[in-house]
Amino acid sequence: MNLSARLLSIANKVNQSSNIIDIGTDHGYVPIYLCEKNVIQKAVASDVSKSSCDKASKNILEHSQDTRISVIKSDGLNSIDTMGFDTVVISGMGGKLIGKIVDDSVDKFSNIEYLIVQPQTDVEYVRRKLHDVGYKITDEDIVLEDEIYYNIIVGKKGNEIYEKEIEYLFGKVLIDRKDKMLKSLLEYEIIKSRDIIKLLNESKTENAMNRINNINKYIILLDETINSILIKEGLDECFM
Ligand SMILES: C[S@@+](CC[C@H](N)C(=O)[O-])C[C@H]1O[C@@H](n2cnc3c(N)ncnc32)[C@H](O)[C@@H]1O
C-alpha cells in the first residue's frame, strides 16, 4: 500500500515490533501499511464512527486480510483495553479533540510508551497536553501535502517542560534541529499574517485593531523563532 506523505510520516514514527492502537483510524491505512511492512506485531484500528470501522474492515480485507489488525468501534479509548499495547496513534483530528481523547482515558495511557499525534489545529495546545500528561516530545516532523503543513509529534513517556513560548508554539525539536520545513512554515505564516493585517486595516473597527495587535505579537514570535534558528547556525544555507 502507498501512503500519502502525511500518513507515511506518521507510520515512519512507529518503532519496529510495536503493538499499536490507531484511534480515529477511518480508512485504516496506517495499521494496514505497518502490518504489510512487518513493522508492528498487532494493531487495533478504532473509530467512533461505524461507517469508518466498516471502511477500515473492508480495506483490511482488500489489502492484506491481516489477522493482526482488530477493528473496534470506540469513542477514544473508552471501549479498548490498552494492555499489551505500547503505542497510540491519533492523527487527522483537531488538537482539542486529541486532548479530550487523552484526558478522557488518562489511566489507560499508563502502559503506553509512545503517543504519536498529528493535530490538524491547535498544535501548541497539543505539545502542552503531551507534557501535562507525562510525555516528553522526542521527535517531530512537518510535512507539506496539498499546500497544507502538517505537524507530526512523537511523545515518549517521561517528564519535560519547555522554557520558551516559541518552543511550544513551533516545536523545540524542530527549532533545535534547524528544520528546513519549519523555516518554510514560519515564512509562510509571516506572509499570511501580513496579508490578514492588510485586509483588517481596511475595516478600521476596534475589533479589527485588536486582531491586528494580536497578529503583530504573533509576527514578533515568528521573527524571534526564525532569528533564533539563524543565530544558532550562523548561515541561512545551513538549514537541514
Ligand atoms: C479525518 S479522519 C482521520 C483519519 C486518519 N487517522 C488520518 O489521519 O488520515 C478523523 C477520524 O476520527 C474519527 N473520530 C472523531 N472523533 C473520535 C473519537 N472521539 N474517537 C475515535 N474516533 C474519532 C472520525 O470518525 C474520523 O474517522
What is the topology, as strand order, of the major beta sheet? 3-2-1-4-5-7-6
Overall average pLDDT: 94
| Ligand roster | S-adenosylmethionine
The name of the CATH superfamily of the largest domain reads Vaccinia Virus protein VP39
What is the total number of structural domains? 2
Major sheet size, sense and barrel closure: 7 strands, mixed
- CATH class call of the largest domain: Alpha Beta
The helix-strand sequence is HEHEHEEHEHEEHHH
Helix content: 40-55%
Stated plainly, the CATH topology of the largest domain is called Rossmann fold
Structural class: alpha/beta
Q: What's the architecture of the largest domain in CATH terms?
A: 3-Layer(aba) Sandwich
> How many DSSP H or I helices?
8
- Oligomer category: single chain
Percentage of residues in DSSP E strands? 15-25%
Overall geometry: elongated
